[in-house]
Amino acid sequence: MKRLLAALLMSLAAAAVAADAVLRVEASEPRAFGYQVGDHLQRRVVVQVPAGWTLDEASLPKPGGRGLALELRAVREKRTPGASGQRLELDLDYQVFLAPAAPRTVEIAAQRLRFDAGGRVEEALIEAWPVTIAPLVQAEAPTRRGLGEMQPDRAPLLIDTTPARTRLVAYAIAAALLLAGLALAHLGPPWNAARNRPFGVAWRRLRGLPTQPDAARWKDACVALHEALNRSAGEVLFERGLNDFLQRQPGFAPLREDLQRFLRMSSAQFFGGAAREADDGRWLLALARKCRDAERGLA
Predict the structure, then answer these.
(1) Which H or E run contains 42?
(2) If DSSP codes are grouped into helix, strand and coil, which group holds residue 261?
(3) pLDDT, tens digit, 9 for 90 and up, residues 64-81
(4) What is the distance between the alpha carbons of residues 215 and 232, in angstroms, rounded to a whole number?
(5) What domain range is 50 assigned to?
(6) How many domains does one find in the chain?
């Protein structure tokens, strides 16, 4: 029983070794058409060489071998050892030398690689491969309509500009936001400061003042205009300090008489209880507008 089992194992091992000891050839062929004189075509051959086999270097294709149509220009060789043998890679570069008058099919010549397999010679066959070579020009142009020598120019292919337009829109939006931010940063504070000038604020408070306001609204209007004078002067302004104020703020000099009248009126309103004049609301509103214009430099 043991002898039978040993014989069976030996048979299996021998079969495995025999299976491994087989040449395997794979060829990556070039396309079989579309060549003209001067073109190059490449053929790639991969041979799996069993362990212990030796390549006969003389059987390798040699550059310079030239037939009637093709010449082998270069041979690039790469050998990669492995556990079960060796991988041989051959890159064969051919050049077309045939210039036929009409399409012609020729063959890349077959190659045989020889190997020493432990006392016997084994060969790997690289089969021939057909390729079609076309003429550079036809002998004469066909007479069929649309196939003559002269052909109209083809319209150029249109390029999709959607991505470019999208980027331009995005850049424009970004630029607009940037400009808006710069404008807000540089123009916003001056505009806000101009809007919040003392007499500008007072004018907005007095703008709806009627011609004959009641006592409460009249008092509020006087307070608003006096606060503007105080803010502009930097101190509480009375009639005796008007000259100093006008020297510091010469833009208000044309309003000297009106400002004197207002300061007297304001003093009488808060401290003397004097009677009001006719159309005092209209006059006060006009004074507020003049002071606002003088503050802006428009008086």
Answers:
(1) strand 40-50
(2) helix
(3) 877 778 989 999 999 989
(4) 26
(5) 23-133
(6) 2
